[in-house]
Write a structure and sequence with these properties.
The protein is of the alpha/beta class and 411 residues long. The protein folds into 4 domains: 2-108, GTPase HflX, N-terminal domain (Rossmann fold); 116-178, no CATH class; 198-360, Rossmann fold; 363-410, no CATH class. Helix content is 40%, strand content 21%. The protein contains 13 helices and 13 strands. The chain has a 6-stranded mixed β-sheet, with helices on both faces. The chain has a 4-stranded parallel β-sheet with strand order 2-1-3-4, with helices on both faces. It has a 3-stranded antiparallel β-sheet with strand order 11-13-12. Residues 1-6, 139-147 and 157-161 have low confidence and may be disordered.
């Protein structure tokens, strides 16, 4: 990440098209944070109020003239549009503005390219980059040389910048094959966890909500924590022992964001689908963010796209150390809500207690007398369930316990 900081900063003009001024301002605030994360400095912001973007140039001629004047007056080196542009829109804007033109998708892909450290992460990012660039080749010949340096040229996709369509398709096919191997490995791990009956809790949330901070507090995972969008990209799974002695697996996922590029969703589907197969979801929300309700909508919409709608959800309102504690915080879509500060640890014990309660609801309650020759079955209950009572009698061992339904036939 340090290398991103050391590059000479680009100066960019941010452009948004929306039906309402407030909507455009909010989206540009986030785009400015994204640009900052990618190492760019915002020179100016331009908003056009209209129902839909101009099909040929994204913004109208009057706004193009305004942007041209700002490029001259601010010494900006490029523009970033707040939506994904078509090849025609990019080409027309580059010709009329005579500068580098980027869109929100390219910006997010660039950030991901700087944050992928594992083999899987690099494959996923390069695949998303190439799919994006392949979709932009129409009308641009066999090269994308207009991009120049800086944002959009980092990461594993950089060396393929001038590949023609045929080579891009070949590279995409190769990466898909590699990714299939990774997915198979992930599925083997998932099935192993299911055989071991270890519950999985998936941590999801809008980017910069504090997911990594929570994971670190609970498990000492050592995951990077920064007050930045997409500070961490590669998923991390750690074990955690709850108060009852039961072990669960906590899995952190990449943060969600408005207008998350579909190329990324497709490429990272195997990673994001950890939420789909989890027993419980911690939906982490930044309670101090004024846009938290909209961020929650984005998270639920993304989970819906992934088919992760069956798991119980605890909405974790994080960063309570930055807000008034009497603030009304609700999430009607969650089974429970908890207020915490992952930085100070406040409320975390309550969160784990609520998690245990929800996980216990998924288990079966048994009362059974075991012969002393069946003592091994009680050890299985200890490992995979919750032993409530264990009483040694003359005729055997009496047990009251909660167990996963999957091991009912074995105990």
């Amino acid at each position: 990440m340090e290398e991103i900081r050391q590059e000479q900063k680009e100066r960019v003009i941010l452009i948004a098209v929306a039906e309402r001024q407030e909507e455009a301002e909010e989206s540009l605030d986030e785009l400015e944070e994204l640009a900052k994360t990618a190492g760019a400095e915002t020179a100016a912001r331009v908003i056009q109020i209209r129902e839909t973007p101009h099909p040929a140039t994204y913004i109208g001629k009057g706004k193009i003239d305004e942007v041209n004047a700002l490029l001259y007056g601010t010494d900006a080196t490029g523009v970033i549009c707040d939506d994904e542009l078509s090849p025609a829109q990019i080409g027309n804007l580059e010709r009329m503005l005579d500068t580098k033109v980027m869109d929100r998708t390219l910006l997010i892909l660039d950030i991901f390219a700087g944050r992928a450290y594992t083999k899987e992460g690099n494959i996923q990012v390069e695949l998303a980059q190439l799919k994006y660039r392949a979709s932009k080749l129409t009308g641009q010949g066999t090269a994308l040389s207009r991009l120049g340096g800086g944002i959009g040229t980092r990461g594993p996709g950089e060396k393929k910048l001038e590949m023609d369509r045929r080579l891009i398709r070949r590279r995409i096919s190769h990466l898909k094959a590699e990714l299939r191997d990774v997915i198979r490995h992930r599925e083997v791990q998932r099935k192993q966890r299911q055989r071991n009956h270890v519950p999985v809790i998936c941590i999801v949330g809008y980017t910069n909500a504090g997911k990594s901070t929570l994971l670190n507090y609970l498990t000492n995972a050592g995951v990077l924590e920064e007050n930045q969008l997409f500070a961490t990209l590669d998923p991390t799974t750690k074990s955690l022992e709850l108060g009852s002695g039961q072990t669960v697996l906590l899995t952190d996922t990449v943060g969600f964001i408005r207008k998350l590029p579909h190329h990324l969703v497709d490429a990272f589907r195997s990673t994001l689908e950890e939420a789909k197969y989890s027993d419980l979801i911690f939906h982490v929300v930044d309670a101090s963010n004024p846009q938290k309700e909209k961020h929650m909508e984005v998270v639920y919409e993304t989970l819906k796209q992934l088919g992760a709608v069956g798991s119980d959800v605890i909405t974790v309102f994080n960063k309570m150390d930055l807000v008034e504690h009497d603030m009304v915080l609700k999430d009607p879509k969650a089974q429970m809500t908890v207020k915490i500060s992952a930085r100070t640890g406040e409320g975390v014990d309550e969160l784990l207690s609520e998690a245990e309660e929800l996980l216990q609801r998924k288990k079966l309650y048994i009362e059974k007398l075991y012969s002393y020759s069946e003592a091994g079955k009680i050890q299985m209950i200890r490992s995979y369930g919750q032993l409530v009572k264990e009483e040694y009698r003359e005729d055997g061992i009496y047990v009251e316990a909660y167990i996963p339904k999957e091991i009912l036939g074995s105990v």
